[in-house]
Design a protein that fits this description.
By secondary structure, this protein is α/β, with parallel strands linked by helices. It has two domains: 5-29 and 285-388, Aspartate Aminotransferase, domain 1 (Alpha-Beta Complex); 32-283, Type I PLP-dependent aspartate aminotransferase-like (Major domain) (Aspartate Aminotransferase, domain 2). Helices cover 41% and strands 15% of the residues. It has helices spanning 5-10, 31-47, 49-55, 57-71, 84-92, 111-124, 141-147, 170-180, 199-202, 228-231, 268-284, 286-305, 332-341, 355-361, 377-388; strands at residues 19-20, 78-81, 102-105, 127-130, 152-158, 183-187, 206-210, 222-226, 246-248, 251-252, 310-312, 323-327, 344-345, 347-349, 366-369. Strand 9 (246-248) and strand 10 form a beta hairpin. The model has no long low-confidence stretch (mean pLDDT 97). It binds pyridoxal-5'-phosphate. Pyridoxal-5'-phosphate (PLP) binds next to helix 5.
Length: 391
């Protein structure tokens, strides 16, 4: 299926105002997402919040089906959350670690996850170990397999790290985890919406992701997948009467589905926006989205590499649509500000967001440009041409 850029852009109000190359920060919401949210907020104001939720009950229920379709999962394996971090934490902190348990992770692990590893290591005596990379900076599955023994309690990696284009071999890791019966927690935050994300192919037990990035949903949305068999043995670290109805004065009963990781009160407009964003991505097609992201980011990398004084830091043989670079004698914040003056949105990725990788590679603060399928070749070229005038 060919991608209809003009149509997709006509459904994206933001492209009239900015060259938006900050999709790894937050993608531009398409109009149907906006309509779903504004429509619901309007109904909340008109008839009341509870009443509007009642009226939209079928659509709200359908959000679980949409996320399940995106992931190739069952709807009872999906929980909705306010962001990926909370989704990830709820599953991670439900795992009962013992002294000496090993947590295997990757060098470019995201700060939020790593801080949680550190806290759990401090509390329980579990240990954190980094799986070595191959020569291209990609997690080495063979090295991972050699590390597995009876003390490995968890493999937890980020598929597409927050910067650097790297795409870790999530499915190869899943095959190893399955073979050895080790629980596998995958952070798919920067992958979802950018590439097909099927839990059966990935072989993960738990997957956490956000709505606002490449999925183009609203801010403050995320979701969690937990494989049914694991879910039934995981009690969330915090519970309320939605996750676990209070059935007798001295007893609660955990919900049988993944919604045991949710709480009672929610932002229903945001949930409807998330559901619409997922449907929209599925309508465009994740295969075509991935191919277009690959083309645009390759064009951007090639363009930037040709600009004198610009250094691209991306890793891997098949990098994702996150392009990170520095400019000689210019700070990343200054470059971002300069690009903003030309109407171009990018972000800055600081070393503390992937500290182990940053220290190993001596990374400075980097400019992060993240194109998406609705961007045009002209927009990419414009960024490159502004960079050529910088020095
Ligand atoms: C790799 C990765 N994981 C997790 C997160 C956290 O997502 P959220 O901000 O939705 O909690 C981010 C956010 O940038 C990320 O880049």
């Amino acid at each position: 299926m060919a991608i209809e850029i003009a149509k997709l852009r006509s459904e994206t109000p933001g492209v009239a105002h900015r060259i938006h190359l900050n999709n790894a920060g937050a993608g531009l919401m398409p109009q149907p997402v906006l309509d779903a949210m504004v429509g619901h907020l309007t109904r909340e104001a008109e008839i009341g919040g509870y009443e509007a939720a009642g009226e939209a009950a079928p659509q709200l229920d359908g959000v679980y089906d949409s996320v399940a379709r995106l992931l190739g999962a069952d709807r009872d394996e999906i929980a909705l959350a306010e962001n990926a971090t909370v989704a990830w934490q709820l599953a991670f902190y439900a795992i009962a670690f013992q002294p000496g348990d090993r947590i295997l992770t990757a060098r470019a692990e995201y700060a939020a996850n790593y801080v949680a590893f550190l806290q759990v290591a401090k509390r329980t005596g579990a240990v954190i170990e980094i799986v070595p990379d191959d020569g291209d900076g990609v997690l080495d599955p063979e090295a991972l397999e050699r590390m597995i023994d009876g003390r490995v309690k968890l493999i937890a990696i980020t598929w597409v790290p927050t910067n650097g284009g790297l795409r870790n071999p999530a499915a190869a890791v899943g095959r190893i985890a399955r073979r050895h019966g080790v629980t596998y927690l995958l952070d798919a935050c920067q992958a979802v919406g950018q590439m097909p994300t099927r839990v059966d192919e990935l072989g993960c037990d738990v997957l956490a992701a956000t709505g606002r990035k490449f999925l183009r949903g609203p801010r403050g949305t995320g979701f969690l997948y937990v494989r049914r068999e694991l879910m039934r043995s995981l009690e969330p670290p915090m519970l309320d009467h939605f996750a676990a109805p209070w059935v007798a004065p001295d007893r609660y009963e955990l919900r049988p589905d993944a919604r045991r990781f949710e709480t009672w009160e929610n932002n229903y407009a945001a949930r409807l926006g998330l559901g619409r964003a997922v449907d929209y991505a599925l309508e465009v097609g994740l295969d075509v989205i991935e191919a277009r992201c690959r083309d645009l980011s390759a064009r951007l990398r090639d363009g930037l590499r040709a600009v004198s004084g610009v250094r691209v830091y991306d890793l891997g043989r098949d990098p994702a649509a996150i392009v990170t670079f520095s400019v000689e004698n210019r700070g990343a914040d200054g470059v971002k500000a300069k690009l903003a003056l030309s109407g171009i949105n990018v972000s800055v990725s600081n070393p503390s967001s992937t500290l182990l990788d940053a220290e190993a590679r001596k990374l400075p603060s980097l400019v992060r440009a993240s194109p998406h399928y609705y961007n045009t070749e002209d927009e990419i070229d414009h960024l490159v041409s502004v960079m050529s005038t910088l020095r």
